[in-house]
């Protein structure tokens, strides 16, 4: 197990290096100058002078060769310093500390809902295969997988927010400040982020459960006269969860990707919206830092998923 974890961490380190290289150099291949964009948006005519722009380039380290900039940025990351934002004129670490809790609040709720209700729906559909509940759940999973998250967000925004007025249409309030207002504000974003995961988990759980219940040891359990609940929960469900757990790990990346659209639609001040504004403003340091942190989270979650296989199926051994 220890050897396996060390090997996976080394692989993750290689992936992180590749991610940082791609993000660092691709951002700088985009046309335009981040300083000119910032000056144009701030409407500061005096800052348009070459002298002022050169001074700003020295301040943000943009006057150095690209490889020197990359090495300086990576060195700062190892020291816990993500740099200074060009557009916001704040430390990137401070910006992320303000925005990440918002994204994590919505994302974790969506992951939990997608995992719990997806597994339960798939389990019911498999156990009652061909019955009315299976005929209801299976078509709904097709809809949940295929519907675009931005279209669902706009649809909920229009129906529940504008037409019916049941829920706030935009904004975010911390649950520490106003719990009930916070719950109402996150309902639509959480639904949008959870729908795909719920549908995908349900389909995978149904498929895995149908495969497991055909195994010999399940038939033996039925032959012993064991009850349906005991056979499903104690014998079939644990092995059926292995492919679903894999899907849940991949869902973390999908949640972060979806937050970019959802936070923009519902005007939520999370890391996804910060990433969008930073890309349009070519705020290199912010985009690099957010991408790096998301990559670290996804890699660690996938490592935890791989390690969990041994608990769900003791036959699995790590070499």
Kindly report the name of the CATH homologous superfamily of the largest domain.
Answer: MetI-like
The N- and C-terminal alpha carbons lie at a distance of 7 Å
Biggest sheet overview: none
Spell out the helices and strands N to C: HHHHHHHHHHHH
Taking Cα atoms only, what radius of gyration do you get, to the nearest Å?
24 Å
Q: Quick one: CATH class of the largest domain?
A: Mainly Alpha
**What is the third-level CATH name, the topology of the largest domain?**
MetI-like fold
**Secondary structure: number of strands:** 0
Instruction: Report low-confidence residues grouped into runs of 5 or more.
Output: none
Structurally, the number of domains stands at 2
Tell the overall outline.
globular
Question: What is the CATH architecture descriptor of the largest domain?
Answer: Orthogonal Bundle
